[in-house]
Design goal:
The protein is built from 14 helices and two strands, in the order αααααβααααααααβα.
Length: 368
């Protein structure tokens, strides 16, 4: 009865974020039974789908690639806050939580989102077209920051173990901010056309669609932006609520603790995955790549500076260096990604390769 009355005044896309945040408040910090955990998972999925809807409304108003940037940036900011919160609480695996989460996000976006988007897009349309200039620039930034922040700590000698010294960590944080800032300027201002999808005739898909579709009003856009933030808070917060059940399941299965970070990254990246797949099915592969590489870049470029600052108060060492098998996967992903992006055209083969790399990452995370 209450829901029926609410729907008279508010659409479902407005009710779901509010309901999800209420569920988050009621379940935060409490021991949950498996039945409640299942309900929370359903609410989380609904909030993720609604977040994609509101992100598309905002994107229609501000245009691409700003729309992709809004979704990637919003998710990453909340994800960083979640990482810091979990590291502050301590516990097993907290010292390497930032590394595990960032690396998992990079593998899921560069292989999972890219591979799934390419495969679905090419199955429907035969081939996938995109701008190699923009995608290549984004990929170069991701590989650079991943190497500086996650690979180098394994080989530095100032501190024992895969850990930066204070000055090295400061440099990595500053480099991350500089690279991310310059990339955002390039993507949104200086070379915005590099990040817009094109047809086989070289015409901008976005320009054609926007010419025939009236953008939403300013009021509706601001409302969608607010609901987007509420939905993303619910998605990340409910992922944190689910984490004790995930940890219990991981321990019961005998998996390494790093699997917890992988599962949480999978949950947090649901909105971007759904948005990327929907764009691919509309023949907007460039938007899918913007979301994937933009999310990976934001995850590294924003997490490392915040963690570097927070490390002054966090207990224990900050372990950032990847293990040998993880570095092999990162190197192989980088090479395959370059070969995918450079031609500006992809087939089912490229999509399949990336999904195979994702499967290898998940297998080695479970059975290192």
């Amino acid at each position: 009865m209450v829901i029926a009355r609410l729907r008279r005044w508010l659409p479902l896309t407005a009710i779901v974020p509010l309901l999800a945040d209420v569920v988050l408040i009621l379940t935060w910090g409490r021991q949950l039974g498996w039945g409640v955990v299942a309900v929370v998972a359903v609410v989380l999925a609904a909030a993720a789908l609604v977040a994609v809807h509101h992100a598309e409304v905002v994107a229609h108003r501000v245009g691409e690639p700003f729309g992709s940037l809004v979704l990637a940036l919003a998710v990453t900011v909340i994800e960083v806050a979640l990482i810091v919160t979990m590291m502050t609480s301590g516990g097993p695996g907290s010292f390497s939580l930032a590394r595990d989460t960032v690396f998992a996000a990079a593998m899921i976006t560069m292989n999972g989102i890219v591979g799934l988007s390419l495969l679905l897009g090419t199955v429907r349309y035969g081939s996938a077209l995109f701008n190699p200039e923009g995608s290549g620039a984004a990929l170069a930034c991701v590989v650079t920051l991943a190497t500086l922040s996650l690979v180098l700590p394994t080989f530095t000698t100032s501190r024992p173990g895969p850990e930066f010294s204070a000055i090295q960590l400061t440099f990595a944080a500053m480099a991350s901010l500089v690279v991310y800032g310059v990339f955002v300027f390039t993507q949104t201002i200086r070379h915005r056309d590099f990040f817009l999808p094109v047809t086989s005739a070289g015409e901008s898909v976005i320009a054609v669609e926007e010419a025939h579709a009236k953008p939403p009003s300013l009021g509706r856009t601001l409302a969608s932006l607010a609901l987007l933030i509420l939905a993303l808070i619910a998605v990340v917060g409910l992922a944190k609520v689910e984490s004790p059940a995930i940890e219990t399941g991981v321990r019961a299965a005998g998996f390494p603790h790093a699997v917890v970070g992988v599962v949480i990254a999978l949950l947090v990246l649901v909105p971007e995955t759904v948005a990327a797949v929907r764009s691919a099915l509309r023949r907007r592969i460039q938007i899918s790549l913007n979301l994937a590489y933009g999310s990976a870049l934001a995850s590294i470029g924003l997490t490392i500076p915040v963690i570097a600052l927070a490390s002054r108060w966090l207990p224990g060492p900050l372990l950032l260096g990847l293990q040998p098998s993880q570095m092999v996967l990162l190197a192989l992903t980088s090479v395959v990604s370059v070969l995918t992006v450079v031609p500006g055209r992809a087939t089912r083969l490229q999509g399949t390769l990336h999904l195979v790399l994702l499967a290898a990452f998940l297998l080695l995370a479970i059975n290192p």
